[in-house]
Amino acid sequence: MTTQPSIQGLHHDWSSPAVDASLDRIIEEIAQAQSSLTGVRGPDPDRAEAARLQFEHFGEIRGRGLFYPLMGAGLGRGALVELIDGSVKYDFITGVGVNAFGHGDLDLIRTAMVASMGDVVMQGNLQCNLDAAEFAALLLDAAASPSGRLKHCFLANSGALANENALKICMQHTDAAPRVLTFEHCFAGRTTAMAQIGDSAGGRQGLAANLDVDYLPFFDEADPEGSTSRTVAAMDEAVRRYPSQHSCFMMELVQGEGGFNAAPREFFLPLLERARAAGIPIWFDEVQSFGRTEDPFRFQTLDLEDHADVVTLGKLSQVCATLYTEELNPKPGLLSATFIGSTAAFQVGRRMIERLRSTASYGPDGRHAQLHASFRRLAGELVERLPDAFPSLRNPGTPAKPSEVVGGVGGMMRLTPHGGDGARIKSLLHRLFEVGVIAFSCGHGPFHLRFLPPIGVLEEHDLVEVLGLVGDVLEKGD
Predict the structure, then answer these.
(1) What is the three-class DSSP state of 92?
(2) Which of 209, 344, 405, 455 has a CB 3.0–4.6 Å from the CB of 400, allowing a cystine?
(3) Residue 234 maps to a domain
């Protein structure tokens, strides 16, 4: 990887005693306002009716109401957020993983205020500031490996667009090969092409088919060797049936929408070797997993760096990106976009990644691994305390073991009550919202409670409080 050139003198420096003092005063005011947020509280009766009318009005504008009456008031502290009805709740979904440092992080607010003094709000491919170059270099450095395979970074303003760019790159490299190889239960975004890749019929409803996709079964932790053998056989058959017709092998190394499903290196390795032998580019989709697991990228934890041809990332990063090798560097004209991100998003995203990399977040004994271990321990205690709420998925009529219904990796946390019944999980989510926990679901059956807590500022006491509320709701029953 090339050495990053010096940027000294290239940035306009807004630092001055007057600016710094003004920023300090603003931060002090925000901190004072945040001091009122000490835990969950119910709606303010004086604000509840106005909030209800606002939700209804927004639903009319959208054409469809929100899943929750969830609209922030602009004040939060860590995992706690105040809503427009005056209630305060634990945000354990964080915009589906975007707000990884929670609400009202004073360091990030200060970073965003400095960014707001720049000359433009949005940056793009025709005109960008130094922020874009620094951000792209930071992402490549975070993805660096001894082989230095990933050499290029193209920025985008959404994870779906980063994935579209990945598909374009792979298709151009394979002379417009029309098929995609991926796993069952995957998710790739909601553009027309990404909806075809994602394994969700609802996401494709009413859309014309514009892409052929071959789905492979994902890893089954209850049958590691058998599931690996079946997946290898399915891949061999797809490649035999459609020789030289696959533009890419796309995979989430931790499936997000599909259920926070993870697999070991031993599962992926024979598949990746077959893809390489068949000349199929390998695309790791880390839009949801980036930054949240035991390393900046999940492919690093699994020691799969040498197999990465294309990598996509987003959410936590604020500005999304497609990373790729020199061999897949596309021809001019294939990729572009008016916007790639706001100036504040570049600077805040950079600051978030720098903080995670400099605060012992990563590694087998890093902060993310420790927080996930705490989640598993606390959730396991809940499962053992309320066996009726956690029936086994594999042995109906018996209570589940914690290892069967507690899952995920790092800051991607999963819990499966009610045997994974979709209707009961949805009802549970709304009851949790009422008592002060914002979560969401994942999986296609079984369905799960999904937590994407603010991993950058999460503390064990937040897990204790939230899982305590989950236990209270489950104990009361439907």
Answers:
(1) coil
(2) 405
(3) yes
- In degrees, rounded to 5, the angle at the alpha carbon of residue 135 between the alpha carbons of residues 412 and 260 is 15
SS3 212: strand
DSSP 33-55: HHTT--S-B---HHHHHHHHHHH
- What 3-state DSSP class applies to 313? strand
What predicted TM-score, i.e. pTM, was given to this entire model? Answer: 0.96
Residue 375 lies in a domain: yes
CB 147 within 8 A of CB 308: no
Q: Identity (one letter) of the amino acid at 198?
A: G
Nearest Cα residue to 290 out of 300, 302, 298: 298
Specify if 130 maps to a domain: yes
Residue 161: domain span: 122-358
405 in a structural domain? yes
* Per-residue pLDDT tens digits for 8-27: 677 788 889 999 999 999 99
DSSP calls for 217-253: PPP-TTSHHHHHHHHHHHHHHHHHHSTT-EEEEEE-S
Do 118 and 343 touch, CB atoms closer than 8 A? yes
In this structure, the answer to whether residues 157 and 216 fall within a common structural domain is yes
Task: Please check whether residues 234 and 289 belong to one and the same domain.
Answer: yes
Residues 320 and 238 in one domain: yes
What is the total count of domains within the chain? 2
Q: Residue 314: which of 291, 281, 336, 330 has the closest Cα?
A: 291
Digit-coded pLDDT (tens) for 412-421: 999 999 999 9
- Domain boundary (326, 358, 390) is at 358
Hey, CA dihedral for 150, 152, 157, 158, is it positive or negative? negative
Q: What tens digit of pLDDT does each residue of 248-298 get? A: 999 999 999 999 999 999 999 999 999 999 999 999 999 999 999 999 999
Find where tokens 């058959």 sit.
237
Instruction: Fill in the DSSP letter of residue 292.
Output: T
Is residue 417 reached through a cis peptide bond, with omega within 30 degrees of 0 on the bond before it? Answer: no
Residues in the chain: 478
Euclidean distance between CA atoms 54 and 147, whole angstroms = 54
Which domain CATH number covers 298? 3.40.640.10
- Which one of 304, 326, 358 terminates a domain? 358
